[in-house]
Amino acid sequence: MTYILAIDQGTTSSRAIVFNEKGRSCGTGQREFTQHYPDDGWVEHDPEEIWETTLASCREAIEKAGISAGDLAGIGITNQRETTLLWDRQTGKAVYPAIVWQDRRTAEWTAKLKSQGLESTVSKRTGLLLDPYFSGSKLAWILDNVPGVRQRAEAGELAFGTVDTFLLWRLTGGKQHATDATNASRTLLFNIHTQQWDKALLDIFGIPASLLPEVKDTGADFGRCNPELLGAALPIAAMVGDQQGATIGQACFAPGMAKSTYGTGCFVVLNTGREAQTSSHRLLTTVAYRIGGEVTYALEGSIFVAGAAVQWLRDGLKLIGSAAETQALAESVPSANGVYMVPAFTGLGAPYWDPDARGAILGLTRDTGIAHIARATLESVCYQTRDLVEAMIGDGADFSTLRVDGGMVVNNWLVQRLADTLACDCERPLVTETTALGAAYMAGLQLGVYDSLEKIAELWEREALFQPAMKEVDRERRYHGWRQAVERVRSG
Ligand SMILES: Nc1ncnc2c1ncn2[C@@H]1O[C@H](COP(=O)(O)OP(=O)(O)O)[C@@H](O)[C@H]1O
Ligand SMILES: O=P(O)(O)OC[C@H](O)CO
Question: Is any ligand 1 atom within 6 A of the Cβ of residue 30?
Fold first, then answer.
């Protein structure tokens, strides 16, 4: 049996999974880590905690799989995207905490760039929008706000990376400073057509080119990990942004296939093949994967808060003891009783792109109880997905089936509600850890464990099918209520 270790460094936890060549999990390690909210709309992670939890998860996964590191063919890395780190090339120590993708501190600055008419220049090159979500303005913020950092950057002393690059640097003892095309495509600094860092973009954001990692294919030779860390000098054979990882893990290899992942946020990714299709509905154009120099593109809809709203019910409001309780609560009432929750805690992502919107619970009456709020929270995830799917349909996509995954889809009520809200079939695969699986598949392709994407696609297996059962008139009435609720929280 051949084994691959997939590292999945997510927003709320670091995970590692040992997969066998059939794409089945043999052992998992997981560590949650601290979320820091130092100011309104700011979200940071401690880089050392990212690293330590990742390493501990890898060791745990190998142990649980009952193998030794030497039995692994190699490693694939997948990661929360856009999160921005800057570190010292000598010591490997970060000069500032990781600024997380959800962080909105650069909202004013990106709005200023927009008012200068720069959005179309940026969008044409990157497929993205001028929003604080992406790495470019976060990196510029560190350079401009941490004393001495810009001079050190200009002197070539520092290295920039998203989480994949930072982990690679640490795993290889500073020997590799690289990223892959999927992660690069989320920085606002990378031209998705030429597949190069773009001088015009570096000038707009004021980024010295010396900071940037080399951009490689998704499956590539990323060097070997320091043998002292895991017990063997394993080849690192793939790096992929987590949503692209899930697209691969869900075997969405044909144009028109789509997946939706429900973790902290929710991300719908639609494969558009070799064409970098532009959206007329404020969706993102992004790199799905790059194999042998050939780019497959995707349209993406990104929602910042999905599971995070459930976490807020648990940790912020203490209305529930565990995320899983939301299912029984939602089932315990016949409807949300007119309650809508708009979880715009860090603004609204696609298709609204309103960094200044803030969340609300609307339609409260004296009868409203915890069950209604829990149900409205799960429904908000479904409505937000419908916003994205409507945008994709507007761009010409055909949505008869959506493959779903991520931590939230163990909740059967949620997935049924999703099928009802979207009026489309939702398929849940046997392996819902599709993000990690995608990284393992890419590493396996690079290492010769698989010889084609077709072979990988044959391993995909459906565990459950959820079909729409709601009356159209109810579906439309409820969705109309959601659109009105969203209008109430918009900033403009
Ligand atoms: N049974 C459940 N019902 C609803 N939400 C859930 C359930 N189980 C987990 N979640 C939510 O799913 C999220 C965890 O998903 P995960 O894929 O691990 O996230 P991430 O990769 O972003 O860290 C959490 O935000 C949690 O609140
Ligand atoms: O950590 P996740 O799974 O919520 O994913 C985060 C995304 O990559 C952000 O773009």
Answer: no
